[in-house]
Amino acid sequence: TCDTKDRAQHIVWVAPHGAEGPVSSGR
């Protein structure tokens, strides 16, 4: 994901869920 918007969502997702969440989701 090289999208700036997706990047922000990725960080927001990483905070409470953990780095594995978005990575596994393909985000």
TrEMBL record:
The keyword Flavoprotein does not apply. Residues 1-23 form the ETF-QO/FixX C-terminal domain. GO terms for molecular function: iron-sulfur cluster binding; metal ion binding. Keywords: Electron transport, Iron, Iron-sulfur, Metal-binding, Transport. The keyword Methyltransferase does not apply. InterPro entries: ETF-QO/FixX_C. This is ETF-QO/FixX C-terminal domain-containing protein. It comes from Achromobacter ruhlandii. The lineage of its organism: Bacteria, Pseudomonadati, Pseudomonadota, Betaproteobacteria, Burkholderiales.
